[in-house]
Every structure is written in structure tokens, then in C-alpha cells.
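Severity: low
Component: inverse-folding endpoint
Summary: output formatting inconsistent between runs
Steps to reproduce: submit the following C-alpha cells with default settings.
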């Protein structure tokens, strides 16, 4: 298995940004909107997603919804 070692933290942040940017672009294409959120309840989000908060944890949230009008 490929491991990035200590650089993993940097790559995770870069990837999360890329994914979210693509979500913004995809939303535009289907008449929806999204909003990047970093200030969320860590324990609650991890619980909601069924992840342990140790090996896996939430790092970013972006809800998607239809744009009115
Ligand atoms: C990485 C990142 C994290 C963000 N986290 C939050 C957040 O936790 N709370 C918040 O109100 N806005 C957050 N924002 C900003 C919102 O996504 C949004 O850009 C801002 O609310 C302005 O929205 P508007 O242009 O529709 O008014 C974040 C933006 C980025 C890029």
C-alpha cells in the first residue's frame, strides 16, 4: 500500500479542497448550491457518519440543495 507518511496531512487537505471545488462546479451544473463548512460538531458528525473519529474522521462538510428562483 502506498503511504505518504507525514505528508499525508497535507495531501488530505489538498484533496478535500479539490473534492469540494468539484462539488461547487457540479452543483452549478444541476441548478443546486453548496456551502463549505469547517465549523461543525466533530463528535456528532463522526457519530452521524458511523466513523470512529480516530482511524476515520470528518474533515469537511458541504450540504447540497436546490437554488430557489
Ligand atoms: C474551507 C472553508 C471552510 C468554511 N467553513 C465555514 C464555516 O464553518 N462556517 C461558515 O459560516 N462559513 C464557512 N465557510 C464559508 C462559506 O462556505 C461561504 O463561503 C460563506 O458563508 C459565504 O457564503 P456566501 O458567499 O453565499 O454569502 C468556509 C469556507 C471554506 C472555503
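Observed output (run 2 of 3):
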Amino acid at each position: 500500500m502506498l503511504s505518504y507518511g507525514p505528508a499525508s496531512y497535507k495531501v488530505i487537505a489538498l484533496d478535500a479542497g479539490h473534492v469540494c471545488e468539484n462539488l461547487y462546479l457540479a452543483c452549478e451544473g444541476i441548478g443546486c448550491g453548496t456551502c463549505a463548512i469547517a465549523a461543525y460538531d466533530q463528535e456528532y458528525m463522526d457519530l452521524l457518519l458511523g466513523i470512529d473519529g480516530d482511524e476515520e474522521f470528518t474533515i469537511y462538510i458541504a450540504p447540497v440543495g436546490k437554488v430557489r428562483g
